[in-house]
Amino acid sequence: MFIGRERELASLNQLYTSDKFEFAVIYGRRRVGKTALINQFIKDKKAIYFTGVESNAKQNLENFSKNILEYGSGIRAETAFLSFQAALEYVFQLAEHERLILAIDEYPYVARSSKSLASTIQLLIDKYKDSSKMMLILCGSSMSYMEDHVLAYKAPLYGRRTAQMKILPFDFADTCRYLRNCSDEDKALIYGIVGGTPQYLLQIDDRLSVEDNIKNTFLNPASSLFEEPENLLKQEVREPALYNAIITAIATGASRMAEISTKVGEDTSVCATYLKNLIALGIIQKETPYGEKASRKSIYAIADNMFRFWYRFVPENSSIIARGAADLAYKRVEPHLSDYMGKVFEEICRQYLWKLLLQGEAPVEFKNLGRWWGTDPSTRSQAEIDIMGEQDKDTALFGECKWTNEKVDGSVLETLVKRSELFHYKRIWLYLFAKNGFTKGCVDKAEEMGNVKLVIYSDIM
C-alpha cells in the first residue's frame, strides 16, 4: 500500500510531461521511502531501474547492463557493456526516439566504485541534453555523498539537474493514514514512538494496542527495530561508537555542548564535528531560542522520534529485554510515556499551526515557528514558551501545549499571558493546546480576553 508523497509525485510527473531532457536528484535518509516513491512513479511508464550495490565497478556494470538489455529485449542477457560510458550512451540514444526514465538508485555505491562515473554522466548530458527525451533520476541514501558529490558547487554534475528532492519522514497527518485502526490517542503515541519513517511504520500493527506494539518491536530482541539505531549508524558513519555515545548523552539529559562533551569525554571541537554530521542525517537538531541567531543558549535534541524513544528506553532496559522479559521492561517504560509525549505533542501542534497558515486560517501570518527560553527579569527565573511565531515587529503568536489527562486550567493561560509580556508586540494571539480539554474557568477567561484559541487534541485530528 503506497501512502502520501502526493507533492513529490506531482513534481516528478510535471518533469515527465515536459518531454525534454530532465535530471532529478532524490536523496534522504535510509528507510524514508525513496525507492517506494520511484517505483510508484515509474510503474506505468517506460523505465530502466537500476540499484547500485556496495561492490566493485565490474559487478555494478554487469548488473546495470542486465537491466538495460532486459528493457531492450525483455530477456535476461549475460553480456555486459564494456564501460559505464558505453552503457549510458546506449540509453541516451534509446531516449532520442521515446520518453524513457533511467533511475539509478543507491547512486553513491556505483559512483564510489567507479570514480569517473560523475564526469561521464556530465559529458553525456552535455552531449545529448538537446536531443534526448531521457528523464534521469539519481537517488541516494548517503546524505553527505549526495550533497557533496552531486549537489555541491564543485561537483561535476552541478548545474545539470533540473530538480532535486530531499525526502523527509511523513508528518503526523500522513502518519495517521497508515494507522487507520488506531484510536486518535494511540496515533499520537505511535507517532511519538516511531515517527514518520515508512519502514518503521510498517513494523507497527494498528490492530494491536500501543503496549503490545512497543513490546513486539523495541522490547523484543528479535525485532528489526531493536537493533535499528545501531545498525543505521554503522551504515552511515565510520565511528559508530562515538556517535552512539553522543546520542546517548543527549537522550539522558545533556543538551548543551559543554554537557555533551563532559559526558562523552571528548573535546567540544570533536563533539561539534560529530554533532554536525548527526544533524545532517536528521537524527539530531540544534535549537536556539526563537528570534535569536548564534546564541550561547543553543541546545541539542534528538530530532527523530524513533531514535529518541529507543535511546530513552532501550539501553537502560537492555539486560532484561535480552532475557525476554518484555512485560517487566514495559512496566518500567509505561510510567514515563506521558512525560515523553510532551515534546511530541508540541511538534504535532506546530504542524497544526502550519496547516492553518497554509489554508489561510491562521490569525497570525508567522514566518517561522520555534521554542523560546530565557530569563524572566521579574522573577529572575528561567521561563519557556512551547511555541512562538512572529508575523512582524508588532504581531506574534504564543502557544502552550499540555499532554496530560487533566483538563488545562486558567493558571496555564495566566502563565502564558505573563510570558508573552516579556516581548513588546502590540498584537498577540495565544494558543492553548490540551490533550483532554479545558476547565470552565479557563474557557471563560479565554472568551473574556478574545485573543485566545483553545484547541483540544481531537480538534487537530
Task: Explain briefly what this protein structure is.
This protein is an alpha/beta fold and 461 residues long. The chain folds into 3 domains: 6-166, 3-Layer(aba) Sandwich (Rossmann fold); 172-340, Winged helix-like DNA-binding domain superfamily/Winged helix DNA-binding domain (Arc Repressor Mutant, subunit A, Orthogonal Bundle); 363-460, Trna Endonuclease, Chain: A, domain 1.
Tell me what you see in this structure.
Strand 10, helix 19 and strand 11 form a beta-alpha-beta unit. This protein folds into three domains: 6-166, P-loop containing nucleotide triphosphate hydrolases (Rossmann fold, 3-Layer(aba) Sandwich); 172-340, Orthogonal Bundle (Arc Repressor Mutant, subunit A); 363-460, Trna Endonuclease, Chain: A, domain 1, CATH 3.40.1350. The chain contains 21 helices and twelve strands. By secondary structure, it is an alpha/beta fold. The two termini are 22 Å apart. It has helices at 6-16, 34-42, 57-73, 84-94, 107-113, 117-128, 143-151, 172-178, 184-194, 198-201, 210-216, 228-236, 240-251, 257-264, 268-280, 305-322, 326-333, 337-358, 410-420, 440-449, 457-460; strands at residues 22-27, 47-51, 100-105, 134-140, 163-166, 284-287, 299-302, 370-376, 381-392, 395-402, 427-434, 452-456. The strands form three sheets. The chain has a five-stranded parallel β-sheet, with helices on both faces. A five-stranded mixed β-sheet has the order 8-9-10-11-12, with helices on both faces. The chain has a two-stranded antiparallel ribbon with strand order 6-7.
